[in-house]
Amino acid sequence: MRTTALISNTRAAHRDHDHERCRTAALAQARGLCLDRRVRLTPSREAVLRLIWDSHCPVGAYSLLERLEAEQGHRILPPTVYRALEFLLAQRLIHRIPSRNAFIGCPFPEVPHHNLFLLCRHCGAVAECCAGPLDQAIAATAARAGFSVTDHNLEIEGLCRQCQ
Ligand SMILES: [Zn+2]
Ligand SMILES: [Zn+2]
Ligand SMILES: [Zn+2]
């Protein structure tokens, strides 16, 4: 099976797409989901989410703190950022990329999914894919070992279309 056949829903991580539209849509979706789930997307949570959606490159907690301070023009305590990140992770609006210890926005927060990340080693962009057949193959492989999968993060390194 070719990898491309597994990718059912890749959102472009490329610089050639209309990212402003991409970000606006992601923020609108996050607001809608939080309303449905009756959880509060407070101004600081939303500010952190917006900063994460600045690009498709993962951003670390410290850099988020710095950008938030620059934007708001005053000092911000680290727990504000950590609590916002915890909330956004719990609502599955963002993901943590383990190898980068940094965060990206999730393009499909409305559907529960496992994570498959395509990391570009040149520009740093990360594309997230939903790969149902791959999830099934992993679950079946684990089941044969008597193991039940609750979560997995797969990171694939390479070069994005722009950087090839
Ligand atoms: Zn985009
Ligand atoms: Zn996701
Ligand atoms: Zn790239």
- Look at the structure and give the CATH class of the largest domain: Mainly Alpha
Shape: globular
The largest sheet has its strands arranged as 4-3-5
Give the tally of β-strands: 5
State the helicity in percent bands: 40-55%
What ligands are attached or bound here? zinc ion
Mean pLDDT: 88
**Helix-strand pattern:** HHHHHEEEEHE
Helix count equals 6
Folded structure, characterized:
Helix 3 packs across helix 5. The protein has helices spanning about 5, 20-35, 45-50, 60-70, 80-90, 130-145, and strands spanning about 95, 100-105, 115-120, 125-130, 155-160. Helices cover about 45% and strands about 15% of the residues. With about 160 residues, the protein is an alpha+beta fold. It folds into two domains: about 20-110, Arc Repressor Mutant, subunit A (Orthogonal Bundle); about 115-164, Dna Ligase, domain 1 (2-Layer Sandwich), CATH 3.30.1490.190. It contains six helices and five strands, in the order H-H-H-H-H-E-E-E-E-H-E.
